[in-house]
Write a structure and sequence with these properties.
single chain; 433 residues; mainly alpha; MetI-like fold; two-stranded antiparallel ribbon; 18 helices; 4 strands; extended
Length: 433
């Protein structure tokens, strides 16, 4: 650069580079070039995150609100969307909520049933209503089969096919489904439903399963996280204080589960924990229990807790170890030399320095536990199932919208806990390595 000694009164705009360009413009251009270079460097990672994380979550959120099966039918042969139930939708649009179905409503229903039979869409429409009102699919399939025989007066003719068409709950289910965007699946996932008038009410007590599964998921995940913390703390402390040759050997034992398939580890616990398994046989051989008193440790919550603790324990040990190995032993010795007891030195000096590793391990293990599926499915039985197993169940039944709604609620529940952790402890205090 030239003009390093500008005359008095001249600003930075008067300074120029060696080739005569204004210094301010040259700096701005250099900064822009550096930003573009940095963006190009992170572009592959950004594309990867968008394709594998952001876009799938966006699709899940959209799917939880979107279900057009009552509005249109996807024709596989032609690849087009065929409108369905148009006449019933028109009647709903012309008549407010709470209007009792009249002859015009049944005439619209009869015409739509004939149309469903022609395009063979009665199954998909019935399935869509069945999500909101269980047992409705057979009503649509059986009525569409004989819809061509219907003649005026349509109300009597339709009710002659099946008296369930007089049930206000059926018409309310169709009204709430008469749109591509609906919040019905979130209502169902929160153990609510719509009554005959369209008001949102709690489901019957015996039918409330989703909120209970959410509570069980978070309770078991918290319990597993606590057990992992209690077990991992002394192991990590031992790793951090042993000589390097011995700590490396112990670290190999900690990492060994990562080299074994998750499915193999889980099925191994089935062999160990079953009533005729290794653990019960050992207890019987030691005389601790009788042959008739074998413990039930599989297909229940005990199996889920034991197997998931084994799988997730390394995720707690490693963050703790990464923090503990940086703590100088001289700190504790100094505290003891000043009169502190061993417990006081541990509690006032050593433990606070391990909090970043504890926070990272607790958050990591808890979030992993909340979303676990394979282990509870294999060893949990009915009592050890988590909310992820219910999501998988609805996906296997092709109820994508309800599965997406439950998954979205789980996602936001975890985000709320993450936010609370940040507010109470501070995410900046996490230390993974």
């Amino acid at each position: 650069m030239t003009d390093q000694t500008a005359p008095p009164g001249l600003g930075a705009e008067s300074l120029t580079t060696a080739d005569g360009r204004p210094l301010k413009a040259a700096l701005h251009r250099a900064q822009a070039r550096a930003k573009r270079r940095a963006f190009l460097l992170v572009l592959p990672l950004l594309a990867f995150v968008l394709l594998t994380f952001v876009i799938p979550i966006g699709i899940m959120l959209f799917r939880s609100l979107n279900n057009p099966d009552f509005v249109s039918y996807s024709d596989i042969d032609s690849g087009t969307e065929i409108p369905v139930m148009q006449n019933v939708q028109a009647w709903f649009a012309a008549n407010p909520q709470g209007t009792e179905p009249d002859e015009a409503a049944y005439a619209a229903l009869a015409a739509d049933l004939v149309h469903l039979k022609e395009i063979k869409a009665q199954g998909s429409v019935g399935t869509r209503i069945n999500y909101v009102l269980p047992g409705s699919r057979s009503l649509f399939t059986s009525s569409a089969r004989d819809a061509a025989k219907l003649a005026p007066p349509y109300k009597e003719a339709v009710l002659a096919l099946d008296e369930k068409w007089a049930d206000p709950a059926v018409w309310q289910a169709m009204r709430s489904s008469a749109g591509t965007i609906t919040g019905d699946f979130y209502i169902l996932a929160a153990d609510f439903e719509r009554d005959d008038s369209g008001a949102i009410v709690r489901t019957a007590e015996k039918e409330r399963i989703y909120l209970y599964l959410f509570w069980r998921t978070f309770f078991l995940s918290g319990l597993i996280t606590l057990i992992c913390l209690v077990l991992a703390f002394p192991i990590a402390h031992l790793l951090a204080t042993l000589p390097l040759s011995k700590s490396n050997l112990l670290m190999i034992l900690v990492l060994l589960p990562f080299w074994t398939s998750l499915l193999v580890r889980t099925t191994s616990w089935i062999v160990l924990l079953q009533q005729q398994g290794v653990v019960n046989d050992a207890l019987v051989a030691l005389g601790l229990i009788g042959t008739d008193g074998r413990l039930t440790m599989i297909n229940n919550q005990t199996g889920t807790i034991v197997a998931m603790t084994h799988v997730l324990l390394p995720f707690m040990i490693l963050p703790l170890y990464s923090v503990m190995r940086t703590i100088k032993p001289s700190y504790v010795r100094a505290a003891r030399s000043l009169g502190a007891t061993s417990w006081t030195a541990f509690r006032r000096v050593y433990l606070p320095q391990t909090l970043p590793g504890m926070g990272a391990g607790v958050l990591l293990v808890f979030i992993l536990a909340v979303g676990y599926y394979i282990t509870p499915a294999l060893v949990g039985g009915a009592d050890g199932q988590l909310i992820s197993n219910m999501i998988a169940f609805h996906m296997s039944k092709a109820n994508w919208s309800l599965a997406a709604a439950i998954a979205t609620m789980l996602l936001f529940s975890v985000l709320i806990l993450y936010w609370l952790y940040d507010r109470l402890i501070g995410i900046d205090n996490l230390k993974l390595g």
